[in-house]
Amino acid sequence: MKFIAPEFKKDGFHCPLCGTYAHMNWSRLSNGTSSTNYYESLCSYCSEPSLWRITKYNVSQFGKFPEEAELIFPDNGLAALPEDDMPKDVKTDYVEAARIFSKSPRGAAALLRLGLQKLCKHLGEDGSNINNDIRSLAAKNVLPPMVVRVADTVRITGNNAVHPGTMKDEDFDFVASKMFDLLNFIVKKGISEPKELDALYQLTPEGPRKSAEDKDAKSKVSNL
């Protein structure tokens, strides 16, 4: 399912605490005698609250009404949660990028580029050149070929984040947000799915499994 980012007063989105798409119950917090500048969104799935601070009011003759608010807890930002199988050092960069994304898309892009570089090393490449590493992973069928074009966006965006080039500042808002999805996608394709397939293969009875392995070995020899 497409990631739906948390948004003030929205009925449903992916919970920033449990990562599940769920209905949100909103309530304004009070100090006992009057309303505060804070709202709570309660996830109907995990029953955990997120905290929002009002940043803009709509003032009219009918009163003062909250119009915009920023998510202040949890502080992992508005990106999808990292995949469970994401390597620890890559996840560190991912989470840090998520925390600063709303304030600095350019900084988040640079961190995600670094995370992609580390992820390539975990997938067996040397990590010195993202461009070459991604193409190598696609050639080995570790990743689908189409990911090469998408990964180039990460590389180019990350480079421009550190060394400003032709990209406009507003481009980073959109492109950097998609870079979170790309890293999660690569983890799923390069780490999670092979692990799941191997676990499924290990459930096969030993006899048929051994027979299949022998056939594969003979096939490789005959193709030499």
How does this model look, in words?
The chain has 224 residues and is an alpha+beta fold. The protein has 6 helices and 5 strands, in the order E-E-E-E-E-H-H-H-H-H-H.
Strand content: 15-25%
For the sheet with most strands, the description reads: 5 strands, antiparallel
How many beta-strand segments? Answer: 5
Bulk shape: elongated
Q: Identify the quaternary structure here.
A: single chain
Secondary-structure element order, N to C? EEEEEHHHHHH
- Give the structural class: alpha+beta
Low-confidence runs: none
- Report how far apart the termini are: 43 Å
Helical content, roughly? Answer: 40-55%
Strand ordering within the main sheet: 1-2-3-4-5
Report the average pLDDT across residues: 84
Q: Gyration radius, to the nearest Å?
A: 23 Å
Number of helices, where a helix is a run of at least 4 consecutive DSSP H or I residues = 6
What's the topology here?
Layout: E1 12-14, E2 21-30, E3 35-43, E4 49-60, E5 63-73, H1 88-100, H2 105-122, H3 130-139, H4 147-162, H5 169-202, H6 206-222
Antiparallel strand pairs: 1-2, 2-3, 3-4, 4-5
Helix pairs in contact: 1-2, 2-3, 2-4, 2-5, 3-4, 4-5
